[in-house]
Design a protein that fits this description.
By secondary structure, the chain is an alpha/beta fold. The protein has helices spanning 5-9, 31-41, 47-62, 73-86, 90-95, 118-121, 134-137, 146-152, 172-182, 199-205, 232-240, 279-294, 297-312, 325-328, 341-349, 379-391; strands spanning 15-17, 66-70, 105-109, 126-130, 157-163, 186-189, 210-214, 226-230, 320-323, 333-337, 355-357, 366-369. The protein has two domains: 5-25 and 296-392, Alpha-Beta Complex (Aspartate Aminotransferase, domain 1), CATH 3.90.1150.180; 44-293, Aspartate Aminotransferase, domain 2 (3-Layer(aba) Sandwich), CATH 3.40.640. Helix content is 39%, strand content 14%. The protein has a seven-stranded mixed sheet, with helices on both faces. The chain has a three-stranded antiparallel sheet with strand order 9-10-12. Strands 1-11 form a two-stranded parallel sheet. The structure holds pyridoxal-5'-phosphate. The site of pyridoxal-5'-phosphate has 13 residues, from helix 4.
């Protein structure tokens, strides 16, 4: 391979103004994160011991009791569900995803049903829809209410799931209080809720028992990485179900997170064995987390905003709106209005190099220029491509 593996493979580089999308390769890693991964690749370590070290770092960054590196937020959700179902029970771990014989229900508010709730079900959980979708459909103003959670509780319920974002955040205290009263863990999907950096701590501080973050989005870590942070016993169960367990009970040296006295035996490979986090992902995620917690959100956003303004200056003013970070809740973005947003998106993707804007708000007739992983050298060709499509619309 030469220095550009994509060129060697005949795969085109793309101008990515759509954000850290998994299908476009996620984050673009900083050179020091790449260097940390490369150094990690050259040696052997005990992965359990490495995850113990990761737990200490993740706990410090999130305020949680414990944490582990997963292969993404979706994997973290599957492991969280597996932990809620199995706890310390090696026999239940061995049975998953076949959990029909024991409690396995996870409550999911209807406004929190996403494409990613499948990741909870993958562990063997049965998803129980609760509440109404008035906000989602625009039919009304009401969000999640305590009685809706209480009415769904039964001995077969092992957890509740919560997909957090700017719109659902006001309902988090209601869910925390109901789950505390019922003695079930609250699993929060916060995959894409970074930045702001404070969100690393916010949901744990609010009382969530487990929180999932993507490592390959704004954290700037390896694409196939993520974080599961939260209660120590639940993280330990999740870790046990992820680790390589082809071990002799006589010589097994469990991670410190694992309280061996609570296990009836040494578990076999669990539901998460196929989601193994490698030493490179673990070290890379921690290096990215270090950078992220020391970053200056305000300065980063000011830099992004200046780049967006320079791009906007080359486009017809009537088509472009700058949305500052304070309004988007994340990074500043440009919304660009097109006569037919999806048709324009298809045209941009057919260019050479292909150009990607976010289609998230295409129903409103806009494509969103999200600069999160846009390389600075792509700003000028991006502006030229956008100016060209806007003039011959
Ligand atoms: C991206 C995303 C996920 C999945 O994250 P990965 O790290 O790609 O596994 C889960 N939930 C939400 C809300 C997301 O945006």
């Amino acid at each position: 391979m030469n220095s550009d593996p994509y060129a060697t493979l005949g795969v085109r580089r793309r101008i990515n103004a759509a954000g850290a999308l998994t299908r476009l390769g996620g984050a673009v890693m900083a050179p020091e994160v790449v260097a940390a991964m490369a150094a990690a690749a050259r040696g052997s370590v005990d992965i359990g011991e490495l995850q113990d070290a990761a737990s200490v770092r993740i706990a410090a960054a999130t305020g949680a009791e414990a944490g582990m590196v997963t292969t993404g937020a979706a994997a973290a959700l599957t492991l969280a569900a597996a932990a809620a179902i199995a706890g310390w029970d090696a026999a239940k771990m061995a049975a998953l995803p076949h959990a029909e014989a024991f409690p396995r229900d996870i409550l999911v508010p209807r406004t929190h049903r996403t494409g990613y709730t499948h990741a909870l079900a993958a562990a063997g959980a049965r998803l129980v829809d609760i509440g109404h979708n008035d906000r989602g459909t625009g039919a009304g103003v009401r969000g999640l209410e305590a009685w809706e959670i209480e009415a769904a509780l039964s001995p077969s319920v092992v957890a509740m799931a919560f997909s957090v974002n700017v719109a659902s955040l006001p309902d988090l205290p209601v869910a925390v209080a109901a789950c505390r009263a019922a003695g079930i863990p609250l699993i929060v999907d916060a995959a894409a809720q970074l930045p702001p950096r404070d969100n690393l701590r916010r949901f744990i501080a609010a009382g969530a028992d487990l929180v999932a973050f993507s490592g390959g989005k704004a954290l700037g870590g390896p694409q196939a990485s993520g974080i599961l942070a939260g209660r120590r016993d639940l993280v330990a169960s999740a870790l046990l179900q992820q680790l390589d367990m082809d071990v002799a009970p006589q010589t097994w040296s469990p991670p410190k997170l694992v309280d061996r006295a609570r296990l009836r035996g040494v578990p076999h490979h669990g539901i998460g064995r196929g989601f193994k986090a490698g030493k490179e992902e673990i070290v890379g995620l921690l290096a990215a987390l270090d950078r992220f917690v020391t970053a200056d959100d305000a300065a980063d956003n000011a830099r992004l905003e200046a780049r967006l303004k320079a791009i906007a200056a080359k486009l017809p003013a009537s088509a472009v709106t700058l949305i500052p970070a304070a309004v988007s809740g994340r990074v500043p973005v440009l919304e660009i209005a097109f006569a037919d947003a999806l048709a324009t998106s298809a045209r941009l993707q057919a260019l050479d190099p292909p150009v990607h804007l976010s289609e998230r708000h295409s129903a409103r007739g806009v494509l969103t220029l999200d600069p999160q992983v846009l390389l600075p050298e792509d700003d000028a060709p991006l502006a030229a491509a956008l100016a060209a499509v806007l003039t011959d619309e």
